[in-house]
Amino acid sequence: MDAPNPMPAEDAHELCTWFGYWAQFVVLGFFVILGAFFGAHGGEPGDETAGVILALTAAAVAFMRLKAGFDGAPRSWESFLFVDDMANLVFAIVVLAILGLVGLFVAAAHDTGGLHNGGVALFLVAALFVLLNLKRVFDTAEAHR
After folding, report:
1. Ramachandran angles phi, psi of 78, nearest 5°
2. What does the alpha-carbon distance between residue 40 and residue 47 come to, in Å, rounded to a whole number?
3. Are the beta carbons of 82 and 132 closer than 8 angstroms?
4. For the chain, what are the domain ranges?
């Protein structure tokens, strides 16, 4: 008798792509639960606030990613998080610089706790995003030459 055909490589790739797309929502859901846990059981000043901010932000990102997926936008995180041209780069740098400064002021206002750590993390993430946006814009400009 004929042996059954194994699943073609194309089908396996589509299945992995599908699982990869939905795995991001599992990770974001974990961050929502983690934020809710710290929001409910914060031990130091600011832990509750940092937990609620984490939960709300993770939920908002999940809904934005889901909407982008249903709208047919590119599914890569790179196109979701970074800008492609110089005009948007200027706006992104201004917004990220403001967020970084807010993070530093929040960290300076609290000596310990979740808000201090969250403020430092916000500053570091904003600085990293500025550098990565710069890299992406100049890489895109170089590729179009």
Report:
1. -60, -45
2. 9
3. yes
4. 8-75, 82-140
Count other Cβ atoms within 10 Å, centred on residue 89: 19
In this structure, the number of other CB atoms found within 10 A of the CB of residue 106 comes to 19
Q: Between the CA of residue 122 and those of 26, 53, 54, 83, what are the distances in Å? A: 23, 12, 11, 19
pLDDT tens digits for range 38-90: 888 877 767 788 888 889 999 999 999 888 888 887 778 787 888 888 999 99
User: What are the b/e assignments for 16-43, b being 16+ CB within 10 Å?
Assistant: eeeeeeeebeeebeebbeebbebbeebe
For 5-18, the pLDDT digits (tens) are 666 666 777 777 77
